[in-house]
Amino acid sequence: MMVNTLLPVCAAYSSLESGKYMALAMRQVKVYLKLGVMIAVIAVVLLLVLMNRNHTTDVWFFATYEDVNILWLMLITAVSAVICWWGARKIFRVLHELKEVRQAAILDQQMQEQRRVSQELAEREKRIDEKIRHSITEES
Question: pLDDT of 99-109, one tens digit each?
Fold first, then answer.
């Protein structure tokens, strides 16, 4: 009798355990794929550096520069691209914050106007209530 009541519990427990193992397996696959991609990127960068270490080129950047090492050129290009991307992100973030500040100011102005109108309506209602009370007391 006891075995029959425990069977569904054991089946549910084993399905939970298999779900945990499946999640762990998927996590391991993700980690190993990320590791493989990182190793591939490092290998490509090393191959790029090794293949271009003795190559030079002529560059025109507001003047003619002859025999510029390609590695230095790639490094300067990469660093300037990162700096430009960072600067552009900062500019767009500041513009977004400026837009939010303007919207907040407009919202604040609308709230103040709404409060003012609400106070005026409350004063009118108060005056009407007083007139009604006054007229009721005069009639009695």
Answer: 999 999 999 99
Q: Are 74 and 52 in contact (CB under 8 A)?
A: yes
Q: Tell me how far CA of residue 3 lies from CA of 6, 11, 13, 124, in angstroms.
A: 5, 12, 15, 79
Q: Domain residues of the chain, as ranges?
A: 1-52, 71-140
Q: In terms of residues, how long is the chain?
A: 140
The tens digit of pLDDT for each residue in 22-36 reads: 888 899 999 999 999
- Residues 6+ away with beta carbon under 8 Å from 65: 58, 59
Copy the structure tokens of residue 110.
């609308």
Among 41, 73, 46, 35, which Cα is nearest to 57's? 73
Name the pTM for this structure.
0.52
Spell out a b/e string for 1-34, using b for 16 or more CB atoms within 10 Å of the CB, else e.
eeeeeeeeeeeeeeeeeeeeeeeeeeeeeeeeee
